[in-house]
Structure formats: structure tokens, C-alpha cells
Amino acid sequence: MELNEILSRCDHTLLNVTATSEEIRALCDEAIEYGCASVCIPPCHVRGAKAYVGEQMKICTVIGFPNGYSSTEAKAFEAADAVKNGADEIDMVANLCMARDGHWDGVLEDIRAVRRATECRVLKVIIECCLLTEAEKLEMCKAVTAAGADYIKTSTGFSTGGATREDVALLRANVGSEVKVKAAGGIKS
């Protein structure tokens, strides 16, 4: 695979809590120059970034980030607001508290609420593999598939571990064929 093909599948990301508008514009410029899939930025920067890049680059933002324990209603509002401000893609963090409690109907409804709020935008669900048991990962695969998300994503990059080959293989084997797997966190090469 050629470098430009790899870059076309990568989200150029800046989620630092102190990210400035100037840094976001520089991130957008780099993403356009290198042909990245999108820029992934904090929700507060979506409107300005969309105005800056127009249709030259897709804008992705995060919902319930990085912990996922916001209420379902808050996540749905945040997602709808991001779409209104110009987000093309949404990366939501699944509710891991509900997952650890075995409240899978709640996990499913949490994802479905964000799916409804994002209209036809790309929806990626981050499940933070490093914090889940294998059985919980399998249940997450079911919920992400049933909710109609476009991707299941391994990690926020803000927790105790990132993507592993084993997790990617497990997710790929257990989500629906229409769901893509996105490896994130700790990838250096």
C-alpha cells in the first residue's frame, strides 16, 4: 500500500484541551496537503474549521469524549449541535459504565440516539477495548451493529492502551459486514 493511500484513510487529529484556532487551521492545512480522510477536532472548533476548509476536507468531532459517561440525551444534543455546525463525521464514545454493568439495552439506545441525531453523517463508536473484557467487546460489537453505526473504533487514545492486532481481528470477526473497524490509539508505524 502506498503512503498516499494510507494517509487517505487516516484522520489527522488534535484533541488537546488547549487546542487553539490557529493550531486547528494548521491541522486542516496539513490534512489537505497530505490528503488525509478528515481532521478530528474538539466540538468547539467545528464551526470555525468548517468555515476555513469548506468542502476541501471532512470535519470529524468527538461526542461524550473521552470517557463516554455523559447522559444519552447530552450525547444526542452534542451530536446534533456538531452536525448543525458542519461536522461531517462523529466519533462517539460508548457508555462504558453501562457496559460494565451489563446494561446492553442502554448501550444500544445510547448509540441509537446519537445515530438518529447525526442524520446521514458517518458515525464511529469508540469502545475503548483496553478497558473491556473479551465478552464485553463481543457485546459492544452487537450493539454497534444493531444501532446502525458505520464504524467500531478501538480506542480514544486517552486511556491505558491503544489498538492491538488482536482487538482489531476480534472486532472485524464480530461486527456486521456493513460495519468497518477503525484502529486508533498507540499506532506509531
What does it look like?
The protein has 189 residues and is an alpha/beta fold. The protein has a single domain (3-182), classed as Alpha-Beta Barrel (TIM Barrel), CATH 3.20.20. 44% of the residues lie in helices and 15% in strands. It has helices at residues 3-7, 21-34, 46-53, 72-84, 96-100, 104-117, 134-147, 165-174, and strands spanning 11-13, 38-41, 58-63, 89-93, 122-126, 151-153, 180-182. The chain has a 7-stranded parallel sheet with strand order 1-2-3-4-5-6-7. Helix 2 packs across helix 3 (46-53). The mean pLDDT is 97. GO terms for molecular function: deoxyribose-phosphate aldolase activity. Keywords: Cytoplasm, Lyase, Schiff base.
Key traits:
189 residues; alpha/beta; TIM Barrel; 7-stranded parallel sheet; 44% helix; globular
